[in-house]
Write a structure and sequence with these properties.
By secondary structure, the protein is an alpha+beta fold. Helices cover 23% and strands 24% of the residues. Helix 6 runs antiparallel to helix 7 (199-209). Zinc ion binds next to loops.
């Protein structure tokens, strides 16, 4: 079978956890994958295979809450809780990969080669309204001294405006969360007389507002609801939907980060 077409910045490949998607510019920064529906994320064994794909025996995950809370993982220190409630994981620990799960929500991966800081963020409409992408960048800056101009970001598969019709109340929820109306108007295009949400555009704007150069933000362009052969969609499959994961591991970095450094 033929796989969905990708922009030149992304490619399909086989890894220990089956078919995965990788982002070429992010390859140069940190090992990472977006998994596909070929891997059911339902067992410890499956997560071990995900870890192997990025060179790690451990994968830290979250109890995702559709918000903007960030959890920090530091080199040489264990995570405070096993699956803390949050939607962003930021790490400079090369021994533990960080992952988010999604089915339509966007998995976002970020990396900075200089400090070896990485982040995985889960951003559906609530997380996007809560500013999860921006919170990820700000935590990378404040906790690990990342310069946002050095960040490389990969936007994984998620539901796109072609398939994401939303209620008229959603733009107001974004306004109530503090987003500017002129941006909200661009994030909620109208098509065929219905309102759509463009999660990719909204998250791209949040990343650029936080200082990430637009040219360093790479979008795989895949709509989950239109590629059920390789992806999985809650809108299309409801309770039967599986999850894909966005996973990234620090490559170590070339400079020592500020702050606590136990080894
Ligand atoms: Zn679509």
């Amino acid at each position: 079978m033929s796989l969905p077409e990708l922009p030149p910045s992304f490619y399909w490949t086989e890894a220990s956890c089956g078919l995965v998607l990788r982002c070429r510019p992010l390859d140069a920064v940190a090992p990472h994958v977006f998994t596909t529906r070929r891997l059911a994320l339902a067992s410890d064994a499956a997560w071990r295979r995900v870890g192997e794909a990025v060179g790690s025996a451990h994968v830290a995950t979250l109890t995702q809450a559709h918000g903007g809370r960030v959890v920090i993982l530091r080199r040489g220190l264990p995570m405070a809780a096993s699956r803390p409630e949050a939607d962003v994981l930021v790490s400079n620990n090369p021994e533990v990969a960080v992952a988010v799960r999604a089915a339509d929500c966007l998995p976002l991966l970020l990396g900075d080669a200089r400090t070896g800081t990485v982040a995985a963020a889960h951003a559906g409409w609530r997380g996007t309204a809560a500013g999860a992408a921006r919170a990820a960048v700000e935590a990378m800056m404040s906790e690990f001294g990342v310069a946002p101009g050095h960040l490389v970001a990969a936007i994984g598969p998620g539901i796109r405006p072609c398939c994401y019709e939303v209620g008229r109340e959603l733009p107001d929820a974004f306004a109530a969360a503090g987003h500017a109306r002129h941006l909200i108007d661009r994030w909620f295009p109208s098509r065929e007389s219905s309102l759509r949400l463009d999660l990719q555009q909204a998250n791209r704007h949040q990343l650029t507002a936080a200082g990430v150069p637009d040219a360093q933000i790479h979008d795989c362009g895949l709509c989950t609801a239109m590629h059920l052969d390789v992806l999985t969609s809650y809108r299309a499959e409801r309770e039967g939907a599986g999850r894909i994961a966005g996973v990234i591991r620090s490559a170590g970095g070339s400079v020592r980060p500020p702050g606590p450094s136990p080894r």
